[in-house]
Amino acid sequence: MDNIKENRRNFIKFSTLGILGLALGGGVVISPHLLRAEMRLRPPGAVPEQEFLALCIKCGQCLQVCPYHSIKLSDIIMGHGIGTPYIDPRERGCYACNAVPCVLACPSGALDHALEKSEDAHMGIAVLEFPNRCLALSNTPVPKGHSKRIHDFINEQNNVTQLERDMLKKLDAFEGKQCTICADMCPLPNPLSAISMVKNDDGEKPEIYEGCIGCGVCEELCPSKEPAIVIKPRLSYEDYYIKGIKS
């Protein structure tokens, strides 16, 4: 009987160690793949991703100072980088604040303090990935209630800022008009360096230029049910439009 108990204890012990070993070993093997799969749009000034994950102390200071409520913190569902800041561009883009307060608030260097102007950020690049959804290309007027989703998001915040109210007022004015929202709502000081509407055989479509920083406002405000224009995090204009790197 004692031998049976001892064998049972050894079986449980070594089985548990074996499972843990497999889990840890698997983590080492797949972590680079998880890192790519969980690549998220980071706030302005974010250093390269692996360095960012090492430097970020998950303090949330960047979130606290953002006047547009653009920054969120990753939870366990997000996988890699729990507690690190990111931007969900469909929910809320980055509005390229003049003083770049998120960078100034970062105490660890995960957001590089060398970034002094938002237009010098390299967050990602905008891409008209789903032209069939683009209202401008189909000559469809901006529908009534197109901004309700944005209003709902802002109304959920505890401290709505005047900047957000001003943005909503400008956005609401597009209702019933030909859609130029992605170009006309671009928050950069010189939006024409990043995006403009160009004519083609079907209508007009957004065209992306080298000045695009990947802020995500165009994706957030796209009035289609699903965005026609999306952000590719961590890619530059050269990466996507010249070298052809897609992700």
From TrEMBL:
Single Gene Ontology MF annotation: metal ion binding
InterPro entries: 4Fe4S_Fe-S-bd (IPR017896), 4Fe4S_Fe_S_CS (IPR017900), PSI_iron-sulfur_center (IPR050157), TAT_signal (IPR006311), TAT_signal_bac_arc (IPR019546)
Record domain 4Fe-4S ferredoxin-type: where: 46-76, 83-116, 204-234
Keyword set, alphabetical order: 4Fe-4S, Iron, Iron-sulfur, Membrane, Metal-binding, Molybdenum, Transmembrane, Transmembrane helix
Residue stretches spanning the membrane: 12-35
Signal sequence bounds: none
Keyword Transmembrane helix among record annotations: yes
Pfam families named in the record: Fer4_3, Fer4_7
PANTHER family referenced in this protein's UniProt entry, alphabetically: PHOTOSYSTEM I IRON-SULFUR CENTER, PHOTOSYSTEM I IRON-SULFUR CENTER-RELATED
Protein name: 4Fe-4S ferredoxin
Annotated source species: Halarcobacter anaerophilus
